[in-house]
Specification:
It is built from 6 helices and 13 strands. The chain is α+β, with helices and mostly antiparallel strands and about 260 residues long. The strands form 2 sheets. A 6-stranded antiparallel barrel has the order 6-7-12-9-8-13. It has a 5-stranded mixed sheet with strand order 1-3-2-4-5. Helix 1 packs across helix 3.
Amino acid sequence: REAGPATPVEILGFCGLPNVGDLLLQKGSELAQLSIDENRVEIIGKNAKRTVAVVVRADTQGTLEAVKQGLANLVSESVGNSFAIKFLHASTGDITDSDVSLAQCAKGMVIGFDVKVPPMVADLAESVKVPVKSYRTIYDLIAEVKDFLEGKAFDAESKIKGRAQVIKIFKLQSGDMVIGSKVIAGALKEGVRVSIFDKNPADVQKEDEPLFIGTIKTLKKGSEEVTLVGKDNECGVMLKPQFDAIKEGMWIEVR
C-alpha cells in the first residue's frame, strides 16, 4: 500500500488538525534524517563558519515570509560568512512539540511570531534544552536572533537554573500558603533549594543576602501537581519550611 507524489490519501488517527504546510513524517528515524539532509531543507548562506538550524512559526503566511526574509537578510549582512541559517521547517500556527523535537535533532532553535507556546511544549523545550521563543514584533525577533547567531544572546539566561516572580499569594484554610508565580527563566522543579529576594536576582549584589532559603515542597499548574514548570508558565509553589513574610513582587531563585 503506497501513494506516490501528487496522490491524494486519507490519513486517520491525528489527535489534532494539521496546519497547511506541516510535514508528515513516518515514525522512526525520518525526523532525524530530515534535520541533516540538506537536499530537503532550505539553507541560506554557504561555506559559513557556523550553521544554525531553525524552525519558524508565524500567525499568517504573509508574516511567515517576512520573518524568513528578515532572517535571510541577517545572513547576507554578516561579515566573512560568519553564519548560515538552515530552515528545518516553516509554517503557520502555534508552536508544537514536533517543532521542538525537530529542532532538538538538529541542535537548533524554534522561533515564532505572534503565536503561542503551549505550556506542555514549553516544558518539553526546557527539558531537552531547545531555545523556544515567540515574539510580538518582527523587529524584536530579528534583533534577538541576530544576537543569538553572533553568540551573544541566551548566554546569561542559560546560566539561570530557575527564576520566578511572585504574582499572587493564596492562603488556605489549612494554614498552608500557595505562592502564585510566573517562571521568568529556567525552570522550577519539585525538591530544589530556592532563595527568596525582594528584588530581581539579576540586580542582586554579592553582599545582598536572601530573605529566605528553603525547598520547593510542591508545584501545581491549576489543580494538578507537577514536578517541573518551564519558562513563561504560571504555577503555584508551596515551600518547606513555609515563608509567611513572602509578598507579591518578590522573586524565587533556584540555588
